[in-house]
């Protein structure tokens, strides 16, 4: 319903610029959907009618043909209601947040590993203060072996094993805390 209101002279509906911006947002959303794997796509609230178009766009690799197919996908997406597109955007944002949290956790584990190798017992004491359930002897042995491997230019077997041990310790604790928080929330909701 574009145009002017005959009585007031005001514009009705979105301007052409606004329509272009919205179309580009949908195109960008389509690009993100095409970049996802089938497993990731299955977790999103994507309508069944769009799935063949997404797969077809993925299949086409020639630049101009891919661009044309992507534009067609965006056209099909614009036919969906705004709530559906908003739900897809929200789910994609949540998916991105999860990936960022996983990367941050990985960096945290790597930082602990480097700190243990560089600082030795001081870092081990700090780790045990933070995670008292850690096996002091096992971690200390892995740190010693990782340092020895590094000094002898050997393959980093103990270095990787130390990472796995720290990941289980640090992420296992945070996963348990998340589960406890969810249980507490559920119990709190049941009490109300």
UniProtKB/TrEMBL annotation:
Listed GO CC annotations: cytosol
Protein origin, superkingdom: Bacteria
Coiled-coil region: none
Compartments where found: Cytoplasm
Protein keywords: Cytoplasm, Ribosome biogenesis, RNA-binding, rRNA-binding
Molecular function as annotated in GO: ribosome binding; rRNA binding
Primary localization: cytoplasm
GO biological process, one term: assembly of large subunit precursor of preribosome
A Pfam family of this chain: DarP
UniProt xrefs under PANTHER family: UPF0307 PROTEIN YJGA
Family, as annotated: Belongs to the DarP family.
Name listed for the protein in its UniProt record: Dual-action ribosomal maturation protein DarP
Organism: Cognatilysobacter bugurensis
Lineage: Bacteria, Pseudomonadati, Pseudomonadota, Gammaproteobacteria, Lysobacterales
């Amino acid at each position: 319903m574009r145009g002017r209101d005959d009585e007031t002279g005001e514009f009705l509906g979105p301007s052409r610029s606004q329509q272009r911006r919205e179309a580009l947002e949908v195109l960008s959303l389509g690009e993100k959907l095409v970049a996802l794997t089938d497993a990731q796509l299955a977790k999103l609230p994507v309508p069944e009618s769009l799935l063949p178009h997404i797969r077809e766009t993925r299949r086409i690799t020639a630049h101009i043909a891919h661009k044309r197919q992507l534009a067609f996908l965006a056209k099909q997406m614009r036919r969906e209601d705004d709530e559906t597109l908003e739900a897809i955007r929200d789910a994609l944002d949540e998916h991105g947040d999860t990936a960022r949290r996983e990367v941050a956790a990985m960096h945290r584990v790597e930082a602990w590993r480097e700190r243990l190798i560089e600082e030795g017992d001081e870092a081990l004491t700090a780790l045990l203060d933070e995670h008292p359930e850690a096996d002091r002897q096992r971690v200390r042995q892995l740190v010693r072996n990782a340092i020895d491997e590094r000094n002898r230019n050997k393959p980093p077997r103990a270095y990787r094993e130390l990472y796995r041990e720290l990941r289980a310790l640090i992420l296992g604790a945070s996963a348990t805390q998340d589960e406890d928080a969810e249980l507490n929330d559920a119990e709190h909701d049941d009490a109300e």
